[in-house]
Amino acid sequence: MQNNIQKLSATLRHHILTSTTAAGSGHPSSCLSAVELMAGLFYSGIFKFDLDHPEYPNNDRIIFSKGHAAPLFYSLWAVGGAFDTKELSSLRKFGSRLEGHPTLKFPYTECATGSLGQGLSVGVGLAINGKYLDKINYRTFVLLGDSEMAEGSVWEALEIAAHYKLNNLIAVLDVNRLGQRGETIIGHHLEVYKKKAEAFGWQALVIDGHNLKSIVAAYQKAGETKDRPTMIIAKTFKGKGVSIMENKDGWHGKPLNAEQLTQALLELGMVDVNLKGKISKPKNNVIPSEVEGSPSLSKLPGDFSTSLRSGRNDINYPFDKPVSTRRAYGNALAKIGETNPSIVVLDAETSNSTYAELFKNKFPDRFFEMYIAEQNMVGTALGLSRRGKIPFVSTFSAFFSRAFDQIRMCQYSDANLKFCGSHAGVSIGEDGSSQMGLEDIALFRSVSGSVVFYPSDAVSTEKLIAIATTHHGLVYIRTTRADTAILYNAKDNFKIGGSKTLFSSDKDLITIIGAGITLHEARKAYEELKKENINIRLIDLYSVKPLDTKTLKKAAAETRAIITVEDHYPEGGIGEAVAMALATEKTPIYSLAVRKLPMSGRPQELLDYEEISARAIIKKVKTLLK
User: Fold this and answer.
1) What does the pLDDT read at residue 2?
2) Annotation marks residue 191 as catalytic
3) Residue 420: pLDDT above 70?
4) Catalytic residue among 374, 462, 521, 576
């Protein structure tokens, strides 16, 4: 068997070299170092996968966290019989599904990779799903490069994987010593990686990454481990098998030219380019009728589907008792969790503030504490999403900024994720600037296809979370710390791209647009201005993305000016969103937003200081009317 895998390794090297030279770009040297590691996994019977059904639940999972090794990734599947090797010549070409780094265009890709340091976190999510949720015996393998081991998110993933005893997770560390511009921080000192991995609670196996006997033995030993994940730490050489680049600096991301390719292929010797490896199928290989993607509304339990379509009538908040939107978030999850088993919740040690603990208390088996490690939390949630779960991910809104790269990458993996950022804006008060989410709307608005909700009361929060559950894609829900008045009742309906006009008349002079805490400030302003016979229109812009453009244009046509008020920095916030939507209108638009460096203080003091309070709104209205 090993002799055959050795021949297959030569075939893989041939395809890697020829496809990258044809493309005129790529990372052949980074692929060549991991050839034996991956050939030994794919073609030895260790890795189990049904090629005809990539979504089959029992399939093992493989993630190339070092996504620049994509030519190896594609070659493995082609040589394994998944598709014709002739297609490898389309590598990196416009329209090809074999992109420069793996994306979901290629059906055997678990998630888009290439932004280093993220693959292991996604692997954690896949492994948690297999062990604790679906309880299926598939294993998850993650190929890591030694350069990305400098990323903190990798170590976040290492500690949480050990905490949850993910013995179904195997990390394969390709220690080829050379990074993009020289030697990595640790080089070939494998004992350092071993000590670190063991310190984080992993089984660590140090091997020669080009010795097939050692490689297969390591995979076998990893499969016998019962209580912890395994890291296979392999000493390899970048550019292995091609003398011009083997173990030499300066070859990262450089393909061979035609002349160099000819010489390299001669060095490989006699290669059977048509040689095929066999990828073993998993046991219990019965194809279920539904294995593709995440649950849709039509697949959800009957009571759940009906209650959402009818707009949810199980919401009851007395109008005389203010409730924070963050608490309503927890209430909504606890209700939805009863009828939708696909809901899982992750929180970054803030569940008693985000109120995700209400779900945790009711469904402890579907709640995962991710501790203060937001980057790994988002990556893990992506892994869960890729196995059909609907993860709700919560923390303080400010702290999603440190996980923006992970959030950004989710858009390329067809992620079905719901984020809830609490404690938004200066209205949180005395905790001060470090805790105030003031960039989060801009962050989530910038993600392609995302939905951004900013509810202002408990009823709308619950309604919007129900909608988020049925919408496939990325949804951000911004919640506030303070208790706020109840504005709506169970009969009120909400939708993606909607808004609510709280007050309007044919005598309105100016339109005020708010959301969250500023909507309540605008209500105060409305009442005061009304006493002076100054009519203003008040719009609750609960859907910040997409916007209710129809209502906004109507307001622009019927009033003299529009004022947006937000507890957020002006850049990328509600004001800019409205201005973009009304760019063709002549009605002037004014933005009240957080423009001064915030500080500690009582919430009302800070709203006044930033000029986004009722007092500031009244002042602006009167100034415009002069």
Assistant:
1) 82
2) no
3) yes
4) 374
